[in-house]
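Lecture notes, continued. The same structure-token format from the folding unit now serves as the input rather than the output. Read the line below as a description of shape only.
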């Protein structure tokens, strides 16, 4: 059988070992460091992005907490002022001008609704149809 001839088998084994050895050396010496470098850079980019997101999230939460504290403080002040004003009116037994009070409260509610709606509309992302349905 010619496939099992010793002369043919040794030359084929030699070339097989030589080609795969060269292939292995080229891959480990040239391509593997580039591949590992790209993986390391990607990992660093992900780490930096994560740190930045955490910092922005912490900043946003601290600002929200500060805003809530300010709102609570101002609401307590407004409540105290309203209670003292109505208390003085009741003590003096004067006629209460509810029209003026209703107008001021309505104005405050209107501005609050406008501000909240504006913030709500800014938080909704709107994309054109051409961008939405792109394949």
């Amino acid at each position: 059988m010619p496939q099992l001839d010793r002369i043919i088998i040794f030359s084929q084994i030699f070339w097989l070992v030589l080609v795969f050895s060269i292939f292995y050396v080229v891959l480990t010496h040239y391509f593997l460091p580039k591949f590992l470098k790209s993986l390391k850079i990607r990992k660093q980019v992900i780490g930096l992005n994560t740190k930045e997101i955490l910092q922005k999230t912490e900043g946003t939460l601290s600002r929200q907490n500060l805003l809530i504290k300010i709102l609570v403080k101002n609401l307590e002040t407004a409540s105290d002022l309203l209670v003292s004003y109505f208390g003085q009116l009741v003590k003096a037994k004067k006629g209460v001008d509810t029209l003026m009070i209703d107008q001021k409260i309505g104005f405050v509610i209107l501005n609050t609704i406008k501000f909240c709606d504006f913030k709500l509309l800014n938080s909704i992302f709107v994309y054109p149809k051409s961008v939405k349905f792109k394949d």
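Point for the exam: The first helix runs from residue 6 to 92.
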